[in-house]
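Sequence only, no structure available. Ideas?
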Amino acid sequence: MKILRNFLPIIFIFLLWFIFASPYFILGRAPFAADYQVNNFSPWDMYSQFAQPVKNGAMPDVITQIYPWKNLVINIWKSGEIPLWNSYSFGGTPLLANYQSAVLSPFNILFFVLPFVDGWSLLVLLQPLLAGLGMYIFARRVGISKLGALLSSISFMFCGFIVVWMGYGTLGYALLFLPYALYGLESYFLFGKVKYLIFLALSLPLSFFSGHFQISLYFLIVVIAYWIYKTLEYKSLRKSFFSLIYIFFGFLICLPQILPSLEFYTQSLRSGLFQKGEVIPLSYLPTILAPDFLGNPVTRNDWFGHYAEWNTYIGVIPFFLALLSLSYWKKSIIKFSFIAGLIALVLALNTPIADIFVALHIPVLSTSALSRVVSIHSFFFALLGGFGLDRLQEVFREKKKMGMGLILIFGSIVFVVLWSIVLGKLFLPLEKIIVARQNLILSTILFLGLILTTISGYLLPNRFRKYVILILILTTAFDMYRFASKWQAFDPKSLVAPYVRVVSGFEKIQGNDRSLGNYGAEISNLYRLPSLEGYDALYPKRFGEFVSYVSDGYLHEADRSVVSFPRNGKFTSDAINLLDVKYIIHKVADTNRGWTFQYWKYPSSQFSLLFNDGIYQIFSNNNAFPHAFLVGNYLVKTSQKDILNTLFGGIDQKNSIVLEAKPKIKIGNDENAKAIIKKYNSGNILIQTSAKSNMMLFLSDNYYPGWKAYVDGVPTPIYRADYTFRAVEVPKGDHTVIFSYQPNSFYIGLIGCLFGFLGIISLGILLRRLK
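Reply:
I predicted one. Tokens follow.
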């Protein structure tokens, strides 16, 4: 019975998590906004049998990026290859290096033992459970009681950041291993055991392989800051040195992900875009206590701000208890947690401090949405809430009224001000007052409940006070569960990318030839249809510039996250042929609309109808060039503007290419030359060529560092051709040409990873022997 009592908080965490996840476990519904997908995204939105109410339409990136990428990653892994390259977006782009694909996440194993939709469901749902368990063990390690640690756990596992990003299966994982890392660090300084160093080291790759570089960098900064804090506190050179070494070993393990991502970062437009992103305005601060004060996307009444980017909610009761914990100020862990949490909050706010931070031009951190640093604030204030609950119990025992009294007075003033704004119809638009009023009621009730339970704790006999504490915990659990379940959609598995008639058409055109239509990765990546378009924070910069030029004939900076191939641009008709746009996927309802590709304006002989179900049509472009072809003429241009002007200035694009360096062999012509693609998959392309002269083999896939070419097994240089594509020299005769993506950044990272594991093992053995 005693053992059971010791594990009651853990059992409660599991129980609360199971209740939250019960739509999946009991009803068989997936934590995926499938109703949003089938109602708003092609091709499903055109098939009326799926029409139904949408719960949460605030997570489009899950549908257009994260889910298709994960599907592609798992299928490439299952084919026996490493998912390094994505052939289906942006004319070819790195896959592992785009980071959010989470190619190296250990949780990918779920998809090998379960159907994909179930693997996805558990990937999403495990986040709050792992976050809660991690917070509990860390809170206990730093001296918080079982009940206090349970409160911190509940607050963190369903805090605003974890909840609103849960559906992505990336950002939450990048954060939730923070308490595990700090637990390992804290435990090693306390007990000096090697197992805690290993625990610390392995937590780093678990975060960095999770799929969000920015949050993992915050994670690493906090770990290093905590290491400095413990070093100053313990003044043990030995423990400081070895714990730092193990942090370094953990970082080495992360290099197969970090190095390719940094390389991709330098090749993308994002590396030069220094911005605050969506920082939190001061007027948004009421949502710390009432998360829906300014509306919620789920209820379609949000009218100001970015709910997901700016969410700081940790619960009304944990927030005020976190303030109460400051009466423990002499405790160093309280000082560290409060200062760290406060710094994170201040950085996330729209203040001159945020401007200074961006002006420092720190790679990645100064080019991403700065508001996400609020995740660190949520973690530390949730931890402080547990300390606050312990302090409240002491207040009850010692009958000290001042500390809690001041907190309640402060809270009362805050709520009076908020209600004055609502009832006095101040500052907010009149039509939005009712939204703020309705969403302030529950937070006010929770605060009044805190006041009532606090008074009860003073007045009731000692034997009843534990029930007061339990009421606070249960109330917090109800509050956080309500908050999380309101946001997270659970929809029937059958609605997740369901089969529709046009899919049979997609299956007929799968291969290396490209398609063009009004859709994104939810079609191109899921159904393996190579595309010139894409949506991602990272993509090859030169390709974006090429597409922009096709649009208007001017060389200028491309969009920071989206490449949309012009349907009716200045050079669209030439570009679709040059780049092997073999298929046009046309929504019948878009006929004669300006936003669609206007195939009807081209000669009738150019496009042949391949598929028609009355809703979608698929046409074949009879003038499209092969994906790879041999040419006998070239021009050398070194100016980016000259390259594009020459390429679209009237040259015969099928027989001539524009290079940036002169080939080493003499090039000739052969009208009967052939280049046949025999194999085309992720990171490996095999082409058979036959020609009577030396020629250049052109491949309309993006030029990118790491691609290597071989002619009959002999390495040959790859030339950048037609601004952003590839070409190699091919001698006359019959040859086998292989393009293979072998990025040095990844393989150097693997060596670093190996050294990291060897360091963990060998130094661990040495330390045990020395001890």
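The first strand starts at residue 29 and ends at 30.
Hope that gets you unstuck.
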